[in-house]
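User: Hey, my collaborator sent me this sequence without any context and asked if I could get a structure. I don't really work with proteins. Can you help?
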Amino acid sequence: MSIYSLYQRCFPNYPLEKAAFSDLLGLSEATVLLRRRGEACIGCAVLWKNSLSLLMVAPEERGKGVGSDLLREAEERVRESGADAVILGAGDRYLFQGVPLDQPQMPDFFEKRGYRAEWSSVNMRLSLAGFSTERQKLPPVDGAVSFRFAEASEEAELLAAVKATEPSWTPYFEGASSNVWIAAFPEGIAGFLMAEPDGGRFCTPGEKVGSIGCVGVVPWARKRGIGRRLVASAAEWLGRQGCEYAEALYIELEDWYGAIGFRTVSRQWMGEKELKKHLEG
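Assistant: No problem. I've predicted the 3D structure and written it out in C-alpha cell form, which is a compact way to encode the shape of the chain:
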C-alpha cells in the first residue's frame, strides 16, 4: 500500500488526485517518516520545517502505538532542527491547515500529547449557481473603484500593497499578477486576492471549483466597502468561467464570508506544541 493509498483510506471525505496530493505536500522535498508491515505502508508522517503537515495511520492499525511512535520521531526531528515548537498543518506546504474536526479522535490524540489550539479554521464554499453581485446586499463603495485582474506592469505596486497588509504573503504574490484580482482606485491598489478557476482542493471527479484566497485590503482603504465587494466580484468572475463553486480555505472570519453566501464545509483544529530542549550535561 502506497502513501497515497493510505491517505485515501484515512481521509475518504477529502478527495484528491494523486498528483495534487504529492504536489500540495511537496513529497519530493519533504521529510517523510514511514511505518510498514511487510510491504504495506501502515503509517506516515510528513514534515515541512517545524510543521507536521500530515499524520495518518491505517484504520486497522490504530491503537497499537503507531501514531504515537511517528509523532515522537517527528517531534525529535523538529527539535534537532533547532525549532522550539511543532505546528499542525499550517506551514509552507499542507493539505489541511490544521487537524480536521470531522474526525474527533484526532484532536483528542494530539491534546493527550501536549498540543493546544487557540482557534479553529474553517473551509467554506459558495454556490455560484445564479450568483451575482447585484443580488448581494453589499455595502456601497466609497469612491471610484474598478475590480479586475492586476497587470504585469503593476507588480511593484501590488507587492507594496501586500507588504502593507500582510507581509508574510509577499512570496505568494511575486510573479503572480495574472492570478490576482484587485480593487483599484485612482490613488492606487486598495485590495487584492488570489483567484484561480481551477483552484478547488477537495473536489469530486468532474466537479469544477474555483478558489479565492489571501484576501486583503490595504490600511488606507479600509472601511470603504471594499472587502466584501472584492470577494463577491471575484466569485462572479469564477462563475463566468464555468465554476460551480468558489472555495475559500483557512478562514477565520466565518461570519464575514457567510454574509456573502459562503457556507462552512469543514473545520480544522489549529494545534501546536512547545518542545522542551534536551538537557546538556
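In plain terms: DSSP finds eight helices and twelve strands in the chain. You can pass these C-alpha cells on to your collaborator as they are.
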